[in-house]
Amino acid sequence: MISSEDIFNIKTAKQFEDAALNVFKYQFENNPVYRSFCDLLYKHPSDITSLENIPFLPIQFFKSHKVINQGATEEKVFTSSGTTGSITSKHYVSNINLYEESFTRGFDYFYGDVKDYVILALLPSYLEREGSSLIYMVDHLLKASKHEESGFYLNNVQELTKTLIELEKKQQKTLLIGVSFALLDLVENHNFDLKHTIVMETGGMKGRRKEMIREELHHKLKAGFGVDQIHSEYGMTELLSQAYSKGNGVFECPPWMKVQARDTEDAFTILPHGKTGGLNIIDLANVNSCAFIATQDLGRIRPNSHFEVLGRFDHSDIRGCNLMAL
User: Fold this and answer.
1) Of residues 154 and 185, more confidently modeled
2) What is the pLDDT of residue 321?
């Protein structure tokens, strides 16, 4: 059994690798979907001696299979957004406390005590559906902040504008977290000069606006909010941990999470720093589902293990991965 202390007390790269190898062995023995995938690849714990050898489960499996440890019962099911009629990912979470501990410790690691912040959430596309892991996280954080001004905003943009201005006058540390199209809507209606507010985008136009590259998006948001940097959150339905960027689209992981880039022509080859490839994520908080996920995001890893997300590739673009898509 892997305890939360084994996950969240990691301090060094060696501790991370040891914990990841233990989690791999544990999931090989206890997760039927992941075990079948490893068997298909003829990968056994006796063959796995480093992070680079661990098989990464394609993220599509969360759409087609119930990825959870044998004998575990889900306490919560998170679902991804999707167009009408599309198949969505489902993450069966058997220990919701583990998720809460992961995102709370992660926030504290990057930003300090959540009680210091008023949290304003502008996440209309997520609020309009059920099963969002992002809404669960933000709801928990804004309640933990214990500021009466903290809350969600759907279409009440004027009220949000007034609140931001009042908090700025009080010099109150504030986090405004929002989906990209809603943040753009906000600055098109009002120009701000925020000195005490972190503006964090969670990505995605969700079909409400034309997609734009990060540099263009952040340029518009920095000008509209009067801030030097736009922060970003990198998370997904299939994960229980988040990476954060404090500017320029460069993300950092908490100590129990690591990102690698794989060759798009050969999914089993891990690329050196600086090379663009598909992103593999090790999220040790996913101990009860799958901690080793091959995403459909393209990116590159920096020498300090920070990473950039450069886009996505469709399933049809995955070459050398036919075996992985079975």
Assistant:
1) 185
2) 37
Distance CA 46, CA 51 (A): 13
Question: At residue 4, what are phi and psi to the nearest 5 degrees?
Answer: -65, -30
User: What phi and psi values does residue 150 have, to the nearest 5 degrees?
Assistant: -60, 140
Alpha-carbon distance of 40 to 37, in angstroms, equals: 5
CA 126, chain centre distance (Å):
14
Output the DSSP codes for 50-93: SGGGS--EETTHHHHS----TT---SEEEE----TTPPPPEEEE
Residue 100 has pLDDT above 90, yes or no: yes
Those residues with Cβ within 8 angstroms of residue 32's Cβ, 6 or more apart along the chain or in another chain = 70
- Tokens for 227? 């801030």
Taking a C-beta distance cutoff of 8 angstroms, is the pair 293, 241 a contact?
Answer: no
Check if the beta carbon of residue 81 is closer than 8 Å to that of residue 126: yes
CA distance 238 to 62: 7
CB 204 within 8 A of CB 237: no
pTM of the prediction? 0.91
Helix (H, G, I), strand (E, B) or coil at 324: helix
Q: Which of 6-15, 82-91, 297-306 has the lowest mean pLDDT?
A: 82-91
- pLDDT for residue 185 is more than 60: yes
What are 260-293's pLDDT values in tens digits?
999 999 999 999 999 999 999 999 999 999 999 9
